[in-house]
Amino acid sequence: MAGIDTLKQALPPGSWTEDQDVIAPWLTEWRDKYFGQTPIMVMPKSAQETQKIVNICRESGLKIVPQGGNTGLVGGQTPQGEILLSTRRMNNVRSVNIVTNALIAEAGVTLANIQEAADNAGRKFPLSLASEGTCTIGGNLSTNAGGVHVVKYGTTKDLVFGVEAVLPNGEIYNGLTDLRKDNTGYDLSRLFLGAEGTLGIITAASLKLFSKPGHIQRAMCALASAEDAVRLLDHCRQSDRLAMFEVMPRVGLDLVLRHIPGQSDPFRKAYHWYALIDWETENEAQGNELAEQKLSGALEKELIADAVIAKSEAQASALLALREHMSAAQKHNGASVKQDITIPIDRIPEFLTRADQAVLKLEPNCRPVAFGHFGDGNIHYNVAQPEGADREVFLARWNDISKAVFDIVDDLDGSISAEHGIGIMKRSDLAERADPVKMTLLRAVKQAIDPDNMMNPRVML
Ligand SMILES: Cc1cc2nc3c(=O)[nH]c(=O)nc-3n(C[C@H](O)[C@H](O)[C@H](O)COP(=O)(O)OP(=O)(O)OC[C@H]3O[C@@H](n4cnc5c(N)ncnc54)[C@H](O)[C@@H]3O)c2cc1C
Question: Bridge-partner residues for 86, per DSSP?
Answer without folding.
Answer: 67
